């Protein structure tokens, strides 16, 4: 039996994944404590999104295992469903259901997966929409609201499942520049709630403020990992030095 109390929120052991013989993840080992906030940085194509997708089970590694609070994610059935319920994911391109209203987007999973009654799901949805400042948009469709508002709805949708782990994949990279700062502030405020956070981002100053630890990924490997000041101010590898230089 695993001891859930002492288990890391996320544990990756020896993850390997190739797409048509191209290695994408080349041996990833990682342990994330409950409540820890991690930023994942690295060049485009280094495998960051694929890593996140393995954590929440959207992608299956060829080798290695993912544990969520000590439970192997690969196990079929109830424990897999339960593990995935404990995670919310925010995508770069929001990924809202275009044929559903904002309110329906947020109530869908609590009803279908969480088994809540519609009225209860709507009550929770309205609370979550309020937390991200889009209460007034409940009856709109995604195409009627801005990208920044859509991303806020996507965050409300994740929060409605009361996740213990929040995975964010470049949550601001598709937003207009003037919307980025307020989105980063919103994410920072959620991070105060004790959720375990794994956030892929190119916003280095945000990563510095948000993260307890930053991981630098390149070519399918975690090349460096450390506190923000260690990793950003005293990078060890030439790879990380040159990556940071490209960000200016
Ligand atoms: P990052 O998020 O760091 O930019 P990704 O994890 O998206 O990197 O992608 C890593 C590499 O894997 C890229 O070269 C990408 O083209 C490739 N890749 C990602 N998903 C697939 C897929 N479903 N099929 C084939 N190749 C993929
Ligand atoms: Mg990506």
From TrEMBL:
Name under which the protein is recorded: Arginine ABC transporter ATP-binding protein
Lineage of the organism: Bacteria, Pseudomonadati, Pseudomonadota, Alphaproteobacteria, Rhodospirillales
Subcellular location: Cell membrane
Claim: Lyase is one of the keywords in the record: no
Molecular function terms, GO-annotated: ABC-type amino acid transporter activity; ATP binding; ATP hydrolysis activity
Keyword ATP-binding: yes
GO cellular component term of the entry, any: plasma membrane
Superkingdom in the source lineage: Bacteria
ABC transporter domain span: 10-244
Family from the record: Belongs to the ABC transporter superfamily.
Database matches in Pfam families: ABC_tran (PF00005)
Membrane topology: Peripheral membrane protein
Cited PROSITE patterns: ABC_TRANSPORTER_1, ABC_TRANSPORTER_2
Record key words, sorted: Amino-acid transport, ATP-binding, Cell membrane, Membrane, Nucleotide-binding, Transport
InterPro entries: AAA+_ATPase (IPR003593), ABC_ATPase_HisP-typ (IPR030679), ABC_transporter-like_ATP-bd (IPR003439), ABC_transporter-like_CS (IPR017871), MetN_ABC_transporter-like (IPR050086), P-loop_NTPase (IPR027417)
SMART domains the record matches: AAA (SM00382)
PANTHER family recorded: AMINO ACID IMPORT ATP-BINDING PROTEIN, GLUTAMATE_ASPARTATE IMPORT ATP-BINDING PROTEIN GLTL
């Amino acid at each position: 039996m695993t001891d859930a109390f002492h288990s890391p929120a996320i544990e990756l052991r020896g993850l390997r994944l190739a797409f048509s013989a191209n290695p994408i993840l080349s041996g990833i080992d990682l342990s994330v404590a409950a409540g820890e906030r991690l930023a994942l940085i690295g060049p485009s194509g280094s495998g960051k999104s694929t890593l996140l997708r393995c954590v929440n089970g959207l992608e299956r590694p060829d080798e290695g295992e993912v544990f969520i609070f000590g439970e192997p994610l690969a196990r079929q059935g109830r424990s897999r469903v339960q593990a995935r319920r404990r995670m919310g994911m925010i995508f770069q391109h929001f990924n809202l259901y275009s044929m559903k209203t904002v309110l329906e987007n947020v109530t869908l999973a609590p009803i279908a997966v969480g088994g809540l009654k519609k009225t209860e799901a709507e009550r929770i949805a309205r609370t979550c929409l309020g937390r991200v400042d889009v209460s007034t948009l409940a009856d709109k469709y995604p195409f009627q609201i801005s990208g920044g508002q859509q991303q806020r709805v996507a965050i409300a949708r994740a929060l409605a499942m009361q996740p213990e782990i929040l995975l964010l994949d470049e949550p601001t990279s598709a937003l207009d520049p003037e919307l980025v700062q307020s989105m980063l502030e919103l994410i920072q405020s959620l991070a105060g709630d004790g959720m375990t956070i794994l956030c892929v981002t190119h916003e280095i100053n945000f990563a510095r403020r948000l993260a307890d630890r930053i991981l630098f990924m390149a070519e399918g490997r975690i090349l460096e990992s450390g506190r923000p000041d260690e990793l950003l101010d005293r990078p060890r590898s030439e790879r990380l030095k040159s990556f940071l230089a490209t960000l200016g």
